Amino acid sequence: MASEAARGIPHYYLYGDQGADVELDFLHIEPIRDRSGPNDWRIRPHAHPDHMQALLVKEGGGTIRLEERILPISVPGILVVPAGIVHQIDFDPGTDGFVVTAALGCLKAAAASDPRLMGAAERPAVYPLEGTGVSIPAVFDTFEWLHREFIWSAPGRRTAIMAQYMRLLVVMLRLSVTHDDPGIAAPDRDYDLLVRYRALLETHFRSERSLAFYAGDLAVTQARLNTACKARAGKTASDLLYERIVIEAKRYLVYTESSVAQVAHLTGFDDPAYFNRFFTQRVGVSPGAFRKQALHREA
Asked: Would the keyword Phosphoprotein turn up in this protein's UniProt record (predicted)?
């Protein structure tokens, strides 16, 4: 599954879901059987450019292909599929467990207190749980509790979900240090460039809008940067930059009481009117209308 082939690989938020990803800045969890069963237990080659996945396989089994390597699925075991990694899964019929799909923004928030958590989430892996010293009942409880909180609407739901997701990242970190394999997949240069570009965006997206700046810092041409982003994320470098700005603006609108003008300033816009046009063009509603809709959904 080299870069040339990856350009023709579908990009999804959830497998088979053609919806836009921009709105999805949190996480999703569902039983493996819910999506794999109706697809004859085969998840065909695809990638999640803006989301990483962690799977708990409790029973059953099968194989997973991560880029160029095909590996048996350990049972019970944890599969880690970082954002942008092309993968294919052939489950044995009746396989059970959970799939957690987390947006990169959610992942970064959960891993903020310990950089090693992010490192564990960026390492493609198939981890057996037997013989690792990790408590298997505790791992099962983490996924099951995360699923309960996801489908309920109890007070503190988002906080509880984040707490369980952090617990899952700690499990992945501890499993990663018990395995000597430095990495399952061997991503190509497009993937490496996309990862470095995303990291650079996190530092500069509020102040730098020029692709020339990012390409220069990455020591590539703008055309090369665009090629990598299109190959691995299915979007241009500018698309990824603008999406990152929109996601940050949405967070301020939903989770703070900042005025729209203040949100404009916080996301790097000197002119609130220009921010309004920018946001409305990409989201379909004005910042004020988006805030009202979000608050109505939360009520």
From this structure: no
Residue-range definition of the domain harbouring residue 239: 189-298
Residue type, 284: G
| Same domain membership, residue 201 and residue 156 | no
Residues 62 and 104 occupy one common structural domain: yes
155, 82: one domain? yes
- One domain for residues 154 and 19: yes
Q: How far is CA 189 from the centre of its chain?
A: 20
| Model pLDDT for residues 139-196, shown as the tens digit of each residue | 999 999 999 999 988 888 889 999 999 999 999 999 998 876 545 555 688 988 998 9
Q: Which residues contact 55 (CB under 8 A, 6 or more apart)?
A: 32, 78, 79, 81, 97, 98, 99, 100
Q: What is the pLDDT of residue 15?
A: 47
Q: Hey, what's the torsion of the CAs at 173, 191, 99, 251, to 10 degrees?
A: 90
Residues 6+ apart with CB under 8 A from 112: none
